[in-house]
C-alpha cells in the first residue's frame, strides 16, 4: 500500500508535496479556518458541536430552533463554509508530514504504518465533508414542518462526525509518536549542530604485497655406485665344525596313576564281556525250553482233536514208550 501523497508525487513528479513548506501551509489553513468555523456553546445558544452530534430529528430540531431564536443560523452556514479550509489544512499538513517521515526515516527503514496513516487522514477529511453537507441540509430545514430528511441528515452527520474525530486523533497521536523519534536529531545538548554529516567510511588499508615465491631447487638424481665384489671362500663340509648334540632323552615314564587307570579299564571290559556271555547263554536256554514246551502242547492238541473226529479213537492213542528192565 502507498500513501496518497506518495502516489501523487510519484505519478506527477511533485516532489514538494512532502516538503516542510507544505506542512506549514496546511497548519496555516487549519488555524485560519478554525477561527471562522468555531461556534462555542453559550447560555444563549448551543454550539455547532451540538448540531454535529444531534443524531435524531428531535434533537436536531431543538438545536436548530435554539440557534434560530438567537439569530445564529446564518452564522452556522458561514462556519460550515469555513470548515472547508480547516479540512484542507489538516489533511494537507498531516499527509505531507507522514510523507516526510517516510522519505526521512530516523533508523534506516520507515515505519510500516505510515501508508495506512496517510489513507486514514484522507478518509477523515472525506467524512468531515459529509458531515458539513448534512449540517448544511439541516440548516435549511423548516422549523415548523420539518421533513423526514432532517432525521436522516442528523443520523448521517453524527455518524460521519464520530468517524472523522476517531481517525483524526488517531493520526495526530501517531504523528506525534513518530516525531518523537526525531527529537534526538534536532534537539541536541551543548549547542551542537542539528544534523551531523555522515562520516565517510575509513579507507581500507592496502593489502600487503605478496612475497615472491621461491623457485624450487632442481632435483638431482643420484646414481647408485656399484657394490665392491667380495672374495668368496670355498668351504668344504669337512671343514665345518660339528656341534655336540645332546644325548637323546629317554621316553617319558608313565605315572602309577595312569597304570592303575589302564588296568581298571581292562578289568571292567573283561567283566562286561563275561556278563554279556552269561546273559546270552541264559537267553539261549530259555528259548530252547520254550520251543520244546510249545511243541509238546501242539502234539497233545492234535491227538485230542484226532480222537474226537476219528471213528477209531485208538489210532490217536499214544503208544507208551517201552522201558528197558534190567
Protein described:
With 326 residues, the chain is mostly helical. The protein folds into 2 domains: 184 residues, no CATH class; 45 residues, no CATH class. The chain is 59% helix and 0% strand. The protein is built from 9 helices and no strands. Helix 2 runs antiparallel to helix 5. The radius of gyration is 70 Å and the shape is elongated. About 2% of the residues have low confidence.
**SSE order, as H and E?**
HHHHHHHHH
Number of strands: 0
* Computed CA radius of gyration, to the nearest angstrom: 70 Å
Mean pLDDT: 76
Shape: elongated
Question: Into which percentage range does the β-strand content fall?
Answer: under 5%
> With helices defined by DSSP (H or I, 4 residues minimum), what is the helix count?
9
State the helicity in percent bands.
55-70%
Ranges with pLDDT <50 over ≥5 residues? Answer: 190-196
Derived structural class: mainly alpha
Distance between the first and last residues' Cα: 159 Å
Chain oligomer state: single chain
Amino acid at each position: 500500500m502507498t500513501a496518497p501523497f506518495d502516489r501523487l508525487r510519484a505519478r506527477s513528479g511533485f516532489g514538494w508535496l512532502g516538503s516542510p513548506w507544505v506542512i506549514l501551509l496546511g497548519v496555516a489553513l487549519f488555524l485560519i479556518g478554525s477561527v471562522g468555523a468555531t461556534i462555542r456553546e453559550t447560555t444563549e445558544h448551543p454550539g455547532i458541536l451540538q448540531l454535529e452530534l444531534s443524531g435524531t430529528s428531535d434533537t436536531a430540531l431543538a438545536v436548530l430552533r435554539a440557534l434560530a431564536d438567537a439569530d445564529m443560523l446564518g452564522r452556522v452556514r458561514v462556519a460550515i463554509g469555513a470548515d472547508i479550509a480547516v479540512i484542507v489544512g489538516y489533511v494537507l499538513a498531516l499527509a505531507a508530514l507522514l510523507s516526510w517521515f517516510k522519505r526521512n526515516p530516523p533508523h534506516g527503514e520507515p515505519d510500516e504504518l505510515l501508508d495506512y496513516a496517510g489513507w486514514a487522514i484522507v478518509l477523515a477529511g472525506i467524512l468531515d465533508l459529509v458531515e458539513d453537507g448534512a449540517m448544511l441540509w439541516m440548516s435549511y430545514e423548516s422549523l415548523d414542518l420539518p421533513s423526514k430528511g432532517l432525521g436522516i441528515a442528523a443520523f448521517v452527520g453524527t455518524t460521519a462526525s464520530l468517524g472523522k474525530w476517531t481517525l483524526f486523533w488517531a493520526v495526530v497521536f501517531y504523528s506525534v509518536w513518530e516525531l518523537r523519534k526525531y527529537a534526538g536529531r534536532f534537539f541536541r545538548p551543548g549547542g551542537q549542530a542539528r544534523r551531523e554529516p555522515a562520516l565517510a567510511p575509513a579507507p581500507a588499508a592496502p593489502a600487503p604485497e605478496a612475497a615472491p615465491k621461491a623457485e624450487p631447487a632442481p632435483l638431482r638424481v643420484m646414481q647408485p655406485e656399484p657394490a665392491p665384489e667380495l672374495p668368496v671362500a670355498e668351504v668344504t663340509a669337512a671343514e665345518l665344525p660339528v656341534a655336540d648334540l645332546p644325548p637323546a632323552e629317554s621316553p617319558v615314564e608313565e605315572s602309577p596313576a595312569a597304570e592303575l587307570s589302564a588296568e581298571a579299564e581292562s578289568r571292567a571290559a573283561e567283566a562286561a564281556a563275561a556278563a554279556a556271555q552269561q546273559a546270552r547263554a541264559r537267553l539261549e536256554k530259555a528259548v530252547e525250553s520254550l520251543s520244546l514246551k510249545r511243541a509238546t502242547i501242539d502234539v497233545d492238541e492234535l491227538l485230542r482233536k484226532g480222537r474226537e473226529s476219528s471213528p477209531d479213537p485208538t489210532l490217536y492213542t499214544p503208544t507208551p514208550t517201552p522201558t528197558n528192565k534190567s
